[in-house]
Design brief:
The protein has 484 residues and is mostly helical. The chain has helices at residues 3-7, 12-34, 36-47, 72-83, 85-88, 92-116, 136-173, 185-195, 198-201, 205-239, 243-279, 299-306, 435-443; strands spanning 55-58, 65-68, 322-323, 327-329, 335-337, 366-368, 376-378, 392-396, 420-423, 457-459, 473-476, 481-483. It has 13 helices and 12 strands. Helix 3 (36-47) packs across helix 4 (72-83). InterPro entries: MCP_dom_sf (IPR023395), MCP_transmembrane (IPR018108).
C-alpha cells in the first residue's frame, strides 16, 4: 500500500479508486489545457460574440442555401491573426484550476459519502452483479443509488469550482470590449468579492447545477433503458441460436452507449449557455450590457431572453454553424451576424419622421434607445448598414419619461412640454425609450471606456436587426449625450 494512502488512512478499495480516478483527473486536465483554444472560442460563441463575416453555402443535411458563421478552427485562427496567440490562452489558469478542483472535490466527496453514508440512495447491494444477473427492479434500484450519490458529489464539486469557472469566462469575455479588468486569478477573486460579494463568485451556479443533474439522471436512465431492452433482445437471439443477430445486438448496445451522452447533452446544453451568460452578469464588462445583452437579475430572465432568438443553442456546434438570424452589411460589403438586439414591451412616448430607409420599414411601435439627450448626431461608421451620407440631428428637451401601460395600446402623442426639433435627412423613425438610462448608467461605471457604447434599434414585442450597429458614444455628462 502506498505511503500516501496510509497517511490518508485509505483502505485497499479506496486506494484503488483514488489511483484510477486520479489518473483520469490528471489526463482530463491536461487534455483540457491542450484544447483550450476551442474552449475559449466556444465561450465566445455562447456569449454571442460573432465579429467575423458570414459565408454562404449549402447546408449539409438538406442541401439548401444558408449563411454560415466561421467554424471553431477558423474562428480561433482569426482571433490569433487579430490578437495573437496569448489571447487564445486567456483564462487558461482559471480553467485548469476549475477542472482540477472539480475532479478532486468530486473524488473526495465520493469517498467520504461511501465511508460515512453507505446507505444514501439505497442499500449497497448488487453492486458487482452483471446486468444480465438482475431483474428490472434490482437494476433500477442500483441505477437510482448511483444517480443520487453522483448528484451529491457533483453538486459539491461544482460549488467549489464555480468561482474559477466564473473568472475564466469573464477573462475570455473581456475581448468584446477590450477590457483588462480581470487580469490575474487572485486579483480577480478579490475584485469580484469586493464589488459583488459571494454572489458574484457563484454567478450562473444554478443553471450549471441543473445541467449537471439533467446529464447525470438522463444518462443513467437512457443507459438503463438501453441495457434492459438489448438484454431481452440478446436473450431471445441466444434462445433461438441466432449468432449473427446476437453479435449485432452487442454492437448496437456499444454504439448506443456512445450516443447516449450526445443525446442527453442536447437537453442540458441550453442551461450551459445560460450559465455562461449569467457568469458575466453584474461584472461591468461590455458584453454584459446593452446592446450585447440586457441586464439579468436571475437566470430565468436570461433563459426567457435567449429562447425566442434561438440563443440557447449558441456554440452547440463547432462546425456547420448555420446562422438563421438577422444580418448587417459591413463597410467591406460582407455580411455579419447582427446579434445585438433585445425585446422590450416598455415602450414610452416617442417621435416619428415620416419616411423610412430602404432597408426596413419601421412601424409606429418601433423605438430607438435614446433619452436624457441634449444633442444627438449620427454618422455611420464601421459595420453600419446605413449609407455614410446619412446625417441626422435631433434635440430632445424637457423629455418626461412615463411608465404607464396605457400608452402601449394607444396612438403615441406628445405634450407641449415635449417639443422636439428635427432635422430630417434620410427620414428615420427616431424613438425614445427608458432603457437607454441603463446604458448611460453603465457607461459611467469606472471600468468602461466611453467609446464602448452602442445604440441599437428595437421594436416592441419582436426582435429586430440593428440598424445603427456602431453609433459611438464619444462624450457624455449628467445632462448631455453626444452620439456620432
Amino acid at each position: 500500500m502506498p505511503a500516501w494512502s496510509q497517511y490518508l488512512e485509505l483502505n485497499d478499495a479506496e486506494t484503488e479508486k483514488v489511483e484510477k480516478r486520479g489518473r483520469y483527473i490528471i489526463i482530463r486536465t491536461l487534455v483540457g489545457a491542450a484544447v483550450y483554444p476551442l474552449t475559449h472560442v466556444k465561450i465566445l460563441f455562447q456569449l454571442g460574440y460573432e465579429p467575423f463575416p458570414l459565408t454562404s453555402g449549402k447546408f449539409l443535411w438538406f442541401f439548401r442555401d444558408a449563411y454560415f458563421l466561421p467554424n471553431g478552427l477558423k474562428y480561433a485562427t482569426k482571433i490569433y491573426d487579430r490578437f495573437g496567440l496569448c489571447r487564445l490562452y486567456t483564462g487558461i489558469n482559471a480553467s485548469v484550476l476549475s477542472q482540477f478542483t472539480s475532479g478532486l472535490i468530486d473524488l473526495a466527496t465520493s469517498i467520504y459519502v461511501d465511508r460515512h453514508y453507505p446507505e444514501i440512495g439505497g442499500k449497497p447491494i448488487n453492486l458487482d452483479k452483471e446486468e444480465s444477473e438482475m431483474s428490472d427492479a434490482e437494476s433500477m434500484r442500483r441505477v437510482l443509488r448511483f444517480a443520487i450519490r453522483e448528484s451529491i458529489s457533483r453538486t459539491v464539486a461544482v460549488i467549489f469550482s464555480r468561482p474559477f469557472t466564473v473568472i475564466m469566462i469573464r477573462q475570455i469575455a473581456q475581448i468584446v470590449g477590450g477590457e483588462l479588468k480581470y487580469h490575474n486569478l487572485l486579483f480577480s477573486l478579490r475584485l469580484i468579492g469586493i464589488e459583488e460579494g459571494p454572489k458574484g463568485l457563484f454567478s450562473g451556479l444554478i443553471p450549471q447545477l441543473i445541467a449537471e443533474y439533467l446529464s447525470i439522471w438522463g444518462i443513467h436512465f437512457v443507459l438503463y433503458s438501453i441495457e434492459r431492452i438489448t438484454l431481452r433482445a440478446q436473450q431471445d437471439a441466444i434462445r433461438y441460436n441466432k449468432t449473427e443477430e446476437e453479435n449485432f445486438i452487442v454492437s448496437t448496445r456499444k454504439m448506443l452507449h456512445l450516443i447516449a451522452p450526445v443525446f442527453v447533452n442536447s437537453f442540458t446544453y441550453p442551461f450551459q449557455v445560460v450559465s455562461t451568460v449569467m457568469a458575466v452578469a453584474g461584472s461591468g464588462l461590455l458584453v454584459s450590457m446593452l446592446p450585447y445583452s440586457p441586464p439579468f437579475a436571475i437566470w430565468q430572465d436570461a433563459y426567457d431572453y435567449l429562447l425566442p432568438v434561438n440563443g440557447l443553442k449558441r456554440g452547440s456546434r463547432i462546425f456547420w454553424r448555420e446562422h438563421s438570424g438577422a444580418v448587417s452589411v459591413g463597410p467591406d460589403q460582407e455580411l455579419y451576424a447582427a446579434n445585438k438586439h433585445f425585446i422590450s414591451e416598455n415602450c414610452l412616448t416617442a417621435i416619428s419622421i415620416s419616411d423610412t430607409n430602404s432597408y426596413e420599414r419601421l412601424h409606429d411601435d418601433s423605438m430607438l434607445s435614446m433619452s436624457s439627450a441634449a444633442g444627438i448626431t449620427h454618422e455611420s461608421t464601421e459595420n453600419s448598414i446605413i449609407d455614410s451620407s446619412t446625417y441626422l440631428t435631433t434635440k430632445l428637451s424637457s423629455f418626461s419619461i412615463q411608465s404607464t401601460h396605457e400608452e402601449f395600446d394607444s396612438k403615441l402623442y406628445y405634450s407641449s412640454t415635449e417639443r422636439m426639433d428635427l432635422v430630417q435627412n434620410d427620414g428615420y423613425d427616431i424613438f425614445a425609450n427608458k432603457l437607454i438610462i441603463r446604458l448611460i448608467n453603465n457607461l459611467r461605471v469606472k471600468h468602461l471606456r466611453e467609446d464602448d457604447a452602442r445604440v441599437i434599434l428595437m421594436r416592441r414585442g419582436e426582435t429586430v436587426s440593428e440598424v445603427f450597429p456602431n453609433w459611438i458614444m464619444n462624450a457624455f455628462n449628467n445632462s448631455n449625450l453626444y452620439v456620432s
